[in-house]
Predict the 3D structure of the following.
Amino acid sequence: MFKIGFGYDVHRLIRDRPLVLGGVHIPHTLGLAGHSDADVLTHAVMDAVLGAMGRGDIGQHFPDTDPRYKGISSLSMLETVSRMMTREAFKINNLDATLVAEAPKLAGHLTDMEGHLAHTLEAPVDSVNIKATPTEGLGFCGRGEGIAAFAVVSLCGHESANERSGMA
Ligand SMILES: [Zn+2]
């Protein structure tokens, strides 16, 4: 049994904030605004996993009005989603994501992001693929006003889940 999920997120780039993408702290003059650490990539991945499980979205599980999530590492939120996935007998088949950012250059950080996300999702590192693209100066990402992330995930059920669905 396979399930596909899609996630999309955007955060605004502002001064005096760290830039955290896929759990990696990236040196830059600007960082992403948000209630948590505003890790836009991890948020898109969480939405994709929640979507594949048919469990709504990140806002329902981690409301930004809740002080518990203020400044929290998004990887620890992803860990909660990962535990939910395990409880429901799903595991990552593969995850593919694209960051849209004009600056800074992200190519040198993608492998580290893949490592963090794979580790947190308890998935093989070769099942996680992260890409980054600029937009030739076009749109809000091109003007450096924000960073966007798109993620697609496919989950497979553990054998017990397959057996259950086979019996139904
Ligand atoms: Zn977000």
The chain is about 35% helix and 30% strand. The longest helix spans residues 40-53.
